Automatic annotation (TrEMBL):
Chief subcellular location: membrane
Protein name per its UniProtKB record: COBRA-like protein
Originating species: Rhodamnia argentea
Record bears the keyword Signal: yes
Residue ranges constituting the COBRA C-terminal domain according to the UniProt record: 221-257, 264-406
Pfam families noted in UniProt: COB_C, COBRA
């Protein structure tokens, strides 16, 4: 496609950025979403304590994907980590002043990562060793937890002398998290498996980390395109929807040899498109029945060397209160405010389409859904049939501007079939790279 001048690109990017209003740290579709970290001191030792750290992802549709989380903090005193179970510090640091027993990590600011699946049992504890991958609460609460055990020395040995770690950071692929200071909370209570005995942590503190798209990335990382049976025009993603700063790094076909540096979400190798987004979500209004209507959704991956595991898609549309059937995706209504039921999440079926493959012929997933009409609100006019918001993996996607939405022809169409056929064909073309 014709290359526009640099100035044109810059102007467009500026317009795109202005058009795209970020949600900030507060996500209106998941107002209480956060990742909470809990440190439970289970025992005091001669020079410190043993704690179990539990990270729970309370976010409804934002997971931590591979290669997983990295947790960092700064010790308040001269603490060292004697040992860890279920996780490890990435850098031991300078332990030269220790003789005999050498600590696991002597750094003032340790960085801890989860262990990989399949480590020996004596290095595991419950909810560990998933390579730092943590599911979203909406998709799988049982997999939304990650834990490790840490044995700390040269620290206080009572709840009066222990100092809490400072400057806690949670890094995840794609970034975007900031964490509160640790705060002492009432000690956790644990139930024995048979429910007949209660035990209590000696001391507990919590840290809450929240996500902000603005912190995560200057540009959006997904966009929305649209089409309909009643108009053969396909509304593409806005040009430079995800910023054109990588325009000269993109490629037109799968690179033969993988570069030395493995591409990551933060540093991808993209297929060249006008929008330059790693992910495009296409919403096609497919059919209008008497009492129902039908939507086709497809998600296309433009990343080479990046597979999206456990992906999630969130849509906001007033008719989602009346979803009748969803094919080949799982659907779960999200009801952040009790009075509104206009938001829901979609995700893949395990072992079938919960993985979106890297860019190429298999780099997409699709689904259709049938919605029951409410005679008073349903209309094909004014873009009503298109979503208000789309999120992919918890990031808001850039929408086309409303004046670009497919519009109803002014005259009532006499025969919809050829038009819908044409639109369907175009939609198929759109699935292949545009
Ligand atoms: C974190 O999320 C949980 C579950 O949604 C919620 O109960 C809690 O209030 C949240 N914490 C903060 C500090 O927002
Ligand atoms: C501390 O975090 C846990 C989740 O790990 C949560 O259940 C608990 O309510 C939190 N406590 C406070 C006071 O926020
Ligand atoms: C410390 O422990 C004592 C009892 O061992 C308890 O009374 C006190 O409330 C605890 N203080 C804190 C800050 O947890
Ligand atoms: C914690 O972070 C703040 C701001 O980034 C910095 O000013 C401060 O020095 C840090 N504290 C420690 C102990 O590193
Ligand atoms: C993506 O998944 C496919 C199929 O499981 C695999 O062959 C490929 O190596 C994966 N690519 C990456 C970058 O993990
Ligand atoms: C929300 O809508 C779904 C159908 O999409 C329905 O199954 C669910 O019961 C509704 N929930 C509430 C709280 O209205
Ligand atoms: C779904 O639509 C029907 C028909 O308009 C309506 O009677 C019903 O209340 C709707 N269901 C919900 C959950 O809004
Ligand atoms: C289809 O929609 C486009 C974009 O809104 C509009 O410009 C065009 O006139 C519409 N086509 C017809 C046949 O109405």
């Amino acid at each position: 496609m014709a290359c526009r001048s640099k100035l044109h690109h810059i102007l467009l990017s500026v317009v795109c950025v202005i058009l795209f209003s970020y949600a900030g740290a507060y996500d209106p579709l998941d107002p209480t979403g956060n990742i909470t970290m809990k440190w439970d001191i289970m025992s005091w030792t001669a020079d410190g304590y043993v704690a179990v750290v539990t990270m729970t992802n309370f976010q409804m549709y934002r997971h931590i994907m591979s290669p997983g989380w990295k947790l960092g903090w700064v010790w308040a005193k001269k603490e060292v980590i004697w040992s860890m179970v279920g996780a490890q510090a990435t850098d031991q640091g300078d332990c030269s002043k220790f003789k005999g027993n050498i600590p696991h990590c002597c750094k003032k600011n340790p960085t801890v990562v989860d262990l990989l699946p399949g480590v020996p049992y004596n290095q595991q504890i419950a909810n560990c060793c998933k390579g730092g991958v943590v599911a979203s609460w909406g998709q799988d609460p049982s997999a939304a937890v990650s834990s490790f055990q840490i044995s700390v020395g040269l620290s206080g040995t009572s709840n009066k002398t222990v100092k809490l770690p400072k400057n806690i950071t949670l890094a995840a692929p794609g970034g975007g998290y900031s964490c509160s200071p640790a705060k002492i909370v009432p000690s956790s209570i644990f139930m024995s498996p048979d429910g007949r005995r209660k035990t209590q942590a000696l001391m507990t503190w919590n840290i809450t980390c929240t996500y902000s798209q603005l912190v995560a990335s200057k540009y959006p990382r997904c966009c929305v395109s649209m089409s309909s049976f009643y108009n053969s025009t396909i509304t593409p993603c806005p040009t430079c929807a995800c910023g054109c700063q990588n325009k000269n790094k993109c490629v037109l076909s799968a690179p033969k040899i993988q570069s030395v540096v493995t591409p990551t979400i933060d540093n991808p190798i993209l297929h060249c498109t006008e929008h330059m987004c790693p992910i495009r979500v296409h919403w096609h209004v497919e059919t209008n029945y008497k009492e129902y209507w039908r939507v086709k959704m497809s998600v296309t991956n433009f990343n080479y060397f990046i597979n999206y595991t456990q992906w999630t898609l969130v849509a906001q549309h007033p008719n989602l209160n009346n979803v009748t059937q969803v094919f080949s995706f799982v659907y779960k209504p999200l009801v952040p405010y009790r009075s509104m039921n206009d938001t829901g999440m979609f995700y893949g079926i395990k072992f079938f389409n919960d993985l979106i493959m890297e860019a190429g012929p298999d780099g997409n997933v699709q689904s259709e859904m049938i919605l029951q009409k409410d005679a008073y609100t349903f209309t094909l006019k004014e873009g009503w049939a298109f979503p208000r918001k789309i999120y992919f993996n918890g990031e808001e996607c850039m929408m086309p501007s409303p004046d670009q939405y497919p519009r109803l022809p002014n005259s009532a169409p006499a025969n919809l079939f050829p038009v819908s056929l044409r639109a369907a064909l175009l939609a198929i073309c759109l699935l292949v790279f545009c």
